[in-house]
From TrEMBL:
GO terms for biological process: D-glucose import; dehydroascorbic acid transport. This is GTR5 protein. The gene is Slc2a5_1. Residues 1-230 form the Major facilitator superfamily (MFS) profile domain. InterPro entries: GLUT, MFS_dom, MFS_sugar_transport-like, MFS_trans_sf, Sugar_transporter_CS. It is found in: Membrane. The chain crosses the membrane at residues 6-25, 37-56. The lineage of its organism: Eukaryota, Metazoa, Chordata, Craniata, Vertebrata. Keywords: Membrane, Transmembrane, Transmembrane helix. One of its GO terms (cellular component) is plasma membrane. It is a multi-pass membrane protein. GO terms for molecular function: D-glucose transmembrane transporter activity.
Amino acid sequence: LLFLWSITVSIFGIGGLLGSSGSRYLTVKFGKKKCLLCNNVLMIVAASIMGCSKIAQSFEMILIGRFMCGVSAGLCVPLHHQYVGEISPRKLRGFANSTSSFFWSLGKAIGQISGQRELLGSQSLWPMLMASCGFPALVQLVTLPFFPESPPYLLMHKGDQEGCKKAIRQLWGEGQHQAEIDDIMKEKATMKNTKILSVLELVKEPAFRWQLYMIVILTATIQLCGINAV
C-alpha cells in the first residue's frame, strides 16, 4: 500500500517531465493555441477518469489519471508562459507573465483548502475533489477559441504576415503596430543564426553551466523556503 501510495503521488511529476519535454516540438508543429486546446481535452479526460475511479473501484484509474494530469501540467506551464507573453502588448508583458506564478500558488491554496475533510476531502466527496481539475480546463476549452493564435507564431513559423496583423489588431485594437511586427521580424532573423540545444546539449554546454547551476539551486531551495506552507 505504501508503494502504491508513493507511485500515485510521484507519477504526476513523471508525467510532468514527459509533457514539458515534448512542449517545444508540439508548439512549433501545431501552434500554441491548438496545443492548449488539446491539452485541455487531455486534462478533462484525466479528471473524468479519476472522478469515476471510486464507482469503478479501481485504483489503477487514479494512477492513469494522475499521470495524464502530470503530462497536461507539464505541457501547460511552458505553453501558458509563451502564449500569454506573446499575445500581450509590450508594456503589459511582464505583468502578464507573472500571472502564472500567482495562479499557480492560488491553485495550490484552493486545492489545500478544498481537500479538508470538512469540504471535499471526505470519504464520499474525494472523487469530486480529484475531478475538480477538469473545471478550469473546461472553462479554457470554451473561451480559448475566441482568441487568435499567437502573432509571433503566425509570422515566424507560418510566414503569415496578414494573419499576424489580424491577430494583433484583434488582441491590441486598431492602431499602429508596425514596431511590434518589426521586433518579431528581428527575432526571426536572430533565431535563424541560433542553434536550438537539446536538454543533453544544454547540460554539456560550458557557456551555460553557471546559469544552469543557478536555476537548479533556486528551484530546489524554493521548496525549503516555506512557500507551500504559506
